[in-house]
Design a protein that fits this description.
The strands form four sheets. This protein has a six-stranded parallel β-sheet, sandwiched between helices. It is 27% helix and 22% strand. The chain contains five helices and twelve strands. It has helices at residues 40-49, 77-89, 103-117, 201-212, 231-249; strands at 5-9, 13-17, 24-30, 54-58, 71-72, 75-76, 93-101, 126-130, 140-141, 163-164, 187-192, 218-222. The protein has a single domain (5-249), classed as 3-Layer(aba) Sandwich (Rossmann fold). The chain is α/β, with parallel strands linked by helices. Keywords: Hydrolase. GO terms for molecular function: fatty acyl-CoA hydrolase activity. Residues 84-228 form the BAAT/Acyl-CoA thioester hydrolase C-terminal domain.
Length: 251
């Protein structure tokens, strides 16, 4: 019988994983602009937990509730680094990776690149992202979100910043390249070619930049998929993702 065990992570939330004492390959799951309340990152965590991973879906957006996604404004990336350290200290933890989709993908790439730039210890042992941008994006306020064409729709305000590092957003304005080429560990990139929200050209630019730096990420461009994989495409995406995480994080 399939079992997933939830274990409290004091001060942070819950982890999900197999029964037993481990150590287990571990994945921190980073949600997108839908926020932690949507449950999407928890669904992803449960899928990974069912395949033998200890997972931690971290909620990093500010505020929000079941009707409102919350904000990605001046989010301290240092907190993510702290959470990685907390995960590594667990007796049931093995190697630790990051997985994020959309703004979570941006988060994963950005925090990894900053840790690598600053020669910090505790870098993720692998990073996997879907629908990632190649540059830093602007702040997101859930209560202000409208579909294009709706009354009140507006483009991102480039003066509002999404992230901070070491207490400041200086150096992290929108359109700044995410220098993930500084990271030398295993990297997984995927993107739907029919994505109407964030163009797959961003992942192609990441791939090409990594190649120019002598790196060889695993890249999957999904011909018939949009921003988030659906149907059999979702099943295939999870098979590839799980294979990558088992190969790079397996104990």
């Amino acid at each position: 019988m399939l079992r997933i065990v939830n274990r409290p992570l004091a001060g942070w939330g819950m982890t999900y994983g197999p029964p037993g004492d481990g150590p287990f390959p571990t994945v921190m799951v980073l949600h997108g602009s839908e926020g932690a309340w949507s449950g999407y990152s928890y669904l992803t965590a449960a899928i990974l937990a069912a395949h033998g991973f200890l997972t931690f879906p971290i909620g990093y957006s500010q505020g929000g509730n079941v009707w409102n996604a919350g904000n990605i404004v001046d989010v301290p990336l240092d907190r993510t680094v702290e959470a990685l350290g907390v995960l590594r200290a667990l007796p049931i933890t093995g190697r630790v990776g990051l997985y994020g989709v959309s703004r979570g993908a941006e988060h994963a790439l950005l925090v990894t690149s900053l840790m690598a730039r600053d020669a910090m210890s505790g870098l993720p042992d692998a990073v996997a992202v879907h629908a990632a941008p190649d540059v830093i994006c602007g702040a997101f306020v859930g209560a202000e979100w409208r579909d294009a064409g709706d009354p009140g729709w507006q483009a991102w305000d480039p003066a509002r910043r999404a992230w901070t590092w070491r207490g400041t957003s200086d150096g992290l304005p929108p359109t700044t390249a995410i220098e993930i080429e500084r990271y030398r560990g295993p990297l997984y990139l995927s993107h739907g070619l029919q994505d109407a929200i964030w163009s797959a050209a961003m992942t192609m630019r990441l791939r090409d930049r990594l190649h120019r730096h002598g790196l060889d990420p695993e890249v999957h461009l999904l011909a018939d998929q949009g921003h988030v994989p659906e149907g059999e495409g979702e099943n295939a995406h999870h098979r590839r993702l799980i294979a990558f995480l088992h190969r790079t994080l397996g104990v």
